[in-house]
Amino acid sequence: MAVSNVIHRLTHHLWYGQKKANPFLLPIEQVYRHSVGLMKEAYQSGRIVSKELPVPVIVVGNLTVGGTGKTPLTIWLAQFLKSKGFKPGIISRGYGGHITREPLGITFQTSAYQGGDEPVIIARRTGCPVFVHPQRVLAGEALLKAHDVDILITDDGLQHYELIRDIEIAVIDGQRGFGNGHLLPAGPLREPIERLKDVDMIVHHGLNPEADYSMELKGALATNLKNVCQRKPLPGFMGAPLHAMAGIGNPDRFYSLLEAQGLTMQTKTYPDHYRYTKKDLDFAGDEALLMTEKDAVKCFHLARENHWYLPVDAHLSPRFGPDLLALIDRASRKR
C-alpha cells in the first residue's frame, strides 16, 4: 500500500473515527493554534500588509482539511454570476498541479497535473478565466491584467489573509462535521470553529432545515472517459458488476450518492489529489468503473471503454442567490 494511502487512512481514523484526539498530538496542536492566531493578528493589525484588488472578491473556503464541496459551489457561483450579467474570474492555489514561478492561466489544454485537478474542472465547467498560484494576490493580478472581469472568486482561500476579501463563504461538511473538533495535527481543523462567526455566509453541505443555506450535489448521468459524447443514466449500471473509485476529500459522499440511486458496487479509495497510473485502474478489469469528475480529469489518458465518471451539480437553498447579490451590492457600495 502506498505511503500516501496509509497516511490518508490513519488521519481519517484519528480525526473522524475517534471522539478524543490523540494525547501525543495535543502539544503540537497548541503550537499550531498559537501560530495561526499570531498570523491572523499580524494581518489584522497591519504589521503584515494585505492586498486589495480593484474588483470585489468572494472567498469560498472551509475550516477543515479536505473536501467539503467548495469546488461545486465555486462552479455554481461562477455560473450564477454570469447569468446575472457579471463577468467573473476564478483564482486558486492550484493544489496538486505543477507550481510555477509565474501565475498560470488555465486553458482547455491544461492538464490536471499542470494546473491542479480542481482548477481544470472549474475552467472547463464555467468557461470563465481561471488563474492559479500559491499567492492568490499574484494570481488575481495576472487574471485582471489578461481578462476583462468585474468580480473574482477565490477557491479555497479562507485562510489566505494576504488577499483582502469582500465576502466570505464557508462550507461545512454535513456528514463529517468538524471531526473531533481539534486543530491540526490532532484534528482536521485549520482554524478554530469560532472563525465561523466572522464569515458572511455558511453553506451546509447536505440537507439541514436548521441551516441558513444548504447545498446538495446531484448527478444522474455518467459520462464515458473514452468517448465523452457517450452518456449513461445511473440505473443503466444495475444488473452487472460495478466498481467505484474516488480520490477526493470525502469519498464516502460519492459512494452514498451512487447507493442512493440503487447501485451496489465494490469501492476503492485513493487519497485526495492522487496521481493515478494505469495500474491503479486495473482492479476493475473489463467491468464497469465509475469515478468522480475530479478523478476523471487525471485519468483520460489512461481510460478504457468501461471507465465512466459522474459530473455533479450544486443545488443551493433558493434564498442563497438573492442574499449573495445583496452582499455584492453592499460590498460594491463600500468601494
Tell me the total number of β-strands: 15
Radius of gyration: 20 Å
Tell me the quaternary state: single chain
Judged by helices, strands and strand pairing, the structural class is alpha/beta
Q: Walk across the major sheet and give the strand order.
A: 3-4-2-5-1-6-7-8-15
Q: Determine and state the CATH class of the largest domain.
A: Alpha Beta
* CATH level-3 fold name of the largest domain: Rossmann fold
Largest sheet: 9 strands, mixed
Query: What is the rounded distance between the termini?
Result: 53 Å
* Count of the domains: 2
Q: Would you tell me the overall average pLDDT?
A: 94
The run of helices and strands is: HHEHEEHHEHEEEEEEEHEHEHEEH
Proportion of helical residues: 25-40%
Q: What would CATH call the architecture of the largest domain? A: 3-Layer(aba) Sandwich
* Unreliable sequence segments: none
Strand content: 15-25%
Shape type: globular
Description:
- This protein is of the alpha/beta class and 335 residues long.
- Helix content is 32%, strand content 20%.
- It folds into 2 domains: 3-215 and 316-334, 3-Layer(aba) Sandwich (Rossmann fold), CATH 3.40.50; 220-311, Rossmann fold.
- Strand 13, helix 9 (293-296) and strand 14 (307-310) form a beta-alpha-beta unit.
- Helix 3 (70-83) runs parallel beside helix 5.
